[in-house]
Structures are given as structure tokens and as C-alpha cells.
Amino acid sequence: MVSPFLSPGLVSKEHDLASLHLRRDQSLPVVLSTEVTSAEHVGYAEGVVTNTRFGSFPHTTMIGVPWGSQIRASKVDTGSRGRKEAINAKKRKAEVLEQSQTNSQNGESVVAVEAASSGFVHLLPPTPENWTISLPHRTQVVYTPDYAYILHRIRARPGSRLIEAGSGSGSFTHAAARAVFNGYPTASDSGSEQQGTAAGDVESLGKVFSYEFHAERHKKVKAEMVEHGLDGVVHTMHRDVYADGLLVYKDESEEKTSPEANAIFLDLPAPWEALPHLTRDRRDGTPSALDPNSAVHICTFSPCIEQVQKTVSALRQHDWLDIEMVEVQHKRIEVRREYTGLAYEGMRGVNPYAVDVEEALAKLREVERRARDFHAGSLADRKPANGGQQHGGGKLPFDGGKLVHRTEPEIKTHTSYLVFAVLPRAWSEEDEAAAQAKWSKHV
Ligand code: SAM
Predict the structure, then answer these.
(1) Which residue has its alpha carbon closest to ligand 1 atom 14?
(2) Which of 160, 169, 185, 443 is the most exposed place for a label (fewest CB within 10 A)?
(3) Using CA atoms, how far apart are residues 408 and 102, in angstroms rounded to an integer?
(4) Residue 43 CA to chain centroid, in angstroms?
(5) Residue 76: pLDDT band by 50, 70, 90 thresholds?
(6) Which domains, and CATH codes, for the chain?
(7) Mean pLDDT value across the chain
(8) Which residues of 137-164 are buried (b: 16+ CB within 10 A; e: fewer)?
(9) Which of 196, 255, 193 minimizes the C-alpha distance to 229?
(10) How far, in Å, from the CA of 92 to the mean position of ligand 1?
(11) Adjacent-strand bridge partners of 394
């Protein structure tokens, strides 16, 4: 199976995992299907239907369309479901209006505003980012601003061998899988006639080794990797990494091999308890979990400063260098134009929740029409509503308004403290001799 997270193709297909983008920060994962297999979908003439706050979407309208398409809500034949639908209809109308206004403020197109009269979603392929905002939470998760920075700092790239503990809800796992995936061995790499093309068929050379000690969470993340076609990239293990380390084996009887990791991410309550297993020289004679031919970059993720202190102390004791703590403070700046002039006069005093949705949308359309006319030059000779006064630094067109900005309050700024460090590669006498021999050829 080709993972939709790695190569979704251009057009949606039956059985694809899709992300229905409802609005910013809100999307719904859905497996596209025409076969009614669950009771949830019985009673719709259209077959499988996904109901959202913005309307009903039969899957037949979402299969075979280019990813990114806007899909309008359909009037579905709800049969026995009619009563429930009617109860929700009023609430939904107000939400449709809210959606259209959000889009309008975000500068999305007039077309989008008009389509909202019946409700719409955008059909997106699954990505680690939209999976993170819609995944079933089994634990706290690492969000995109943190994992984007972490993956960059631990130098995760195609071909990396990355250790992750614990797997938790698999949010970081998806992003890490995409970062390290480097395709599958070709015929010439493997020496065989067969060429690997799909995740799950042949293993990716870049790998994520993901450890979780909670049995149920491990089972879920393992199943999810198979469902998402990422099992050729991610190797999940049920393990208490404090007690049993990070070598690769299924059960105690099996031979233990090294994951040869060069990137490590520890999202554990006590990362310092895992660090004794992440050294180059193993006194007990077991192989090291680290790549002997590369420097190793680590990140630990802890909400409290006391945890950071213990981690830093253990890192120092186990020879890690360049130890640094970072806190990613994510701020969203909302920029909007405050209109004072002609174009938005019609919307003053309109309470979107108190009015009829058709009436409010007619007003919005009128606003958009006037703006279009203005840009087309048909109003070019009209006098500015504000008399052409200065707003801030510049002279504005007749209803250009004033740009204002503020930090959006709802974003949590503290997620966790990130501790980074590097363990240089070991350098033996043989390595030095080989290096000398190589240089001498060029001198
Ligand atoms: N990074 C994950 C994500 O983005 O979804 C969330 C990880 S969650 C905060 C921490 C996980 O570590 C939990 O699922 C917990 O069961 C697991 N854990 C705690 N101690 C562990 C240990 N000793 N060995 C393996 N996993 C452990």
C-alpha cells in the first residue's frame, strides 16, 4: 500500500483517508467509501454520508475529485433521520454564516463566501499536520510548531534512523515518518529483480523506532501505522524503555540488534531514566543503540523545569555536548482591516446569530459586489467616504480601512521545554588511520 501520508496522488479514491477541512484548526478524518457498512450510515439514499456542522457530504461527491477541491454540502434524502436533521438545521445556518465570515476576514475568495450559502468543506489529503489536529487523543500530543522545530534540530532527514519514546497518540510519529522516509530500495540497491514501490511492501531505509510501554496505546499506534501505510517506515515496539532499553527485539528470547539511531526524541516523564541506555560503550556487552558512524542529535520534551534539570544533569554524565534548552512560543497575529467607509456600511450592526442567514449572505454578496465594482474602476470617480483622510502612514482608497493587529489570545504559549544535545561519533585508531590514508592520496 502506498501511504497517503507520503504520496497521496492527485485525485481522491475510494478507501482513501481524507481530511475534511472545516475551518482553520478544525478538520475531520474520513475514510472515503461508497459501501454502507456501519449502522451510522443506514437510512441515507445517497449511501455513506458524513454530517458536519456545515452540512451533509455524501462520499460519492468526494471520490474522484482533485485533492484541495471545495465540496458543497448536499441536500440528502435523510429518510428516518429527517427529524434530527431538522433540529440541527437552525444551529447549522448560524454556523455556516460564521464560516463564511471567517473566510472573508481571512481574505478567502468571494466564491468561497458564496458557496457557504449551502455549506462546504475542502477535501485535503492526509498530512501529519492535519492528522495532529484531528487525531484521537490518547495522551498529550506534540503539536506542529514544536515538532517542526524538533525535527529540524535533531537533523531528521530522508534516511535518518530516529528513536521515539513514547509513541503516545502517534502525533510526532507521523511527522517523523515523513521526515525520514527516503523511498524504498530499488532493484540495484537490493540486487534483486523486484523493485519496491509501496510502503509496507518493502521497507524504507530511513526508519522510526517507536517505543511505548502502555499496552493499549502501543496496539493502537501499531494498527494505525498499518492503516496509514507507514509500517514500512515505523517500527513500533511495546517496551518500558527505562528498564529494557532501546535495542530492537520482539521478546526476550530474540537476538537484540541495534537500531543504529542518529536522531532521538524522548517525550517521557523521566527522560533521564532512558539516557543510560543511549551511550556508545555498553558495559554489559550489549550493542549500542546508536549509529557508530555518525554524531547523534537528541531532544527531550518536558513540561517542568525540574525535569529539565535532571535531564541536563544526566546528559552531562553520559558525555552529551552542546546542551541547550529552548521553549517554542507560538503566537498567532491576527491582522484585519477595520472598515470605516462605504463598503461595509451595510454590515454595521448585523448580529450574525440574530438574523436570517439568507439576508446576511445577501448583504455579504452586496459588499463583495461593491468591492469588485470598485476594483474594476466603475466607482473610480466617487468621492472617498472618509474624505481621503490619512490612516496611519498612508493615504487610503475611499473605504480602505485601517490595518490593525493583535495577538490571538487562545493559543497556549507554553507547551514544554525542549532540551537539545549532541553526542559526537566515536573516533577509533582505525578511523584515524583510514582518514590519514584518504588524505595522503590527495596530497
Ligand atoms: N509524543 C507523543 C505524541 O506526539 O503523540 C505523546 C507522548 S505521551 C506525552 C508520553 C508517552 O510515553 C505515554 O504514552 C506513556 O505511556 C509513554 N511512556 C511513559 N513512560 C514510558 C516508558 N518507560 N517506556 C515507554 N513509554 C513510556
Answers:
(1) 168
(2) 443
(3) 14
(4) 34
(5) confident
(6) 17-124 (no CATH), 131-330+414-442 (3.40.50.150), 333-407 (no CATH)
(7) 81
(8) ebeebbbbebbebbbebbbbeeebbbbb
(9) 196
(10) 38
(11) 391
Question: Which atom of ligand 1 has the smallest separation from the CA of 240?
Answer: 24
248 CA to centre of ligand 1 in angstroms: 18
The average pLDDT across 417-438 equals 93
Which residue puts its alpha carbon closest to atom 2 of ligand 1?
A: 168
Q: Is 151 helix (H, G, I), strand (E, B) or coil?
A: helix
CA of 267 to the centre of ligand 1 (A): 6
ipTM: 0.99
- Cell numbers 534483486 correspond to 192
Q: Is the CB of 140 under 6 A from ligand 1?
A: yes
Among 150, 164, 267, 299, the mutation site with the greatest number of ligand 1 atoms within 8 A of its Cβ is 267
267 lines ligand 1 (CB under 6 A): yes
Which amino acid, residue 91?
Answer: K
pTM: 0.76
Cα 218 to middle of ligand 1, angstroms:
10
pLDDT digits over 272-324, tens only? 999 999 999 877 788 999 999 999 999 999 999 999 999 999 999 999 999 99
Q: Whose CA is nearest to atom 20 of ligand 1?
A: 268
CA 269–ligand 1 middle distance (angstroms): 8
Residue 166 Cα to ligand 1 middle (Å): 3
Q: Are strands 161-165 and 207-212 parallel, antiparallel or unpaired?
A: parallel
Task: Name the residue of 214, 218, 304, 416 to mutate for ligand 1: max ligand atoms within 8 A of Cβ.
Answer: 214
Selection from 259, 267, 315, 246 nearest residue 416 by Cα? 267
pLDDT, tens digit, for every residue of 115-161? 344 689 999 999 999 999 999 889 999 999 999 999 999 999 999 99
For residue 197, give the C-alpha cell. 514501490
pLDDT at 394 over 50: no
347: phi then psi, degrees, rounded to nearest 5: -95, -10
Angle at 123 between CA 170 and CA 158, to 5 degrees: 45
* Grid cell 517542526 in the structure block, residue: 148
Establish whether residue 144 lines the binding site of ligand 1, counting it when its CB lies within 6 angstroms of any ligand atom: no
Q: Which atom of ligand 1 is nearest to the CA of 172?
A: 4
Task: Pick the range with the lowest mean pLDDT from 267-276, 301-310, 431-440.
Answer: 431-440
**CA–CA separation, 250 and 159 (whole Å):** 23
User: CA-to-CA distance for 121 and 104, rounded, in angstroms?
Assistant: 15
Which atom of ligand 1 has the smallest separation from the CA of 217?
A: 14
Buried b / exposed e over 296-319, threshold 16 CB at 10 Å, is bbbbbbbeeeebbebbbebbeebe
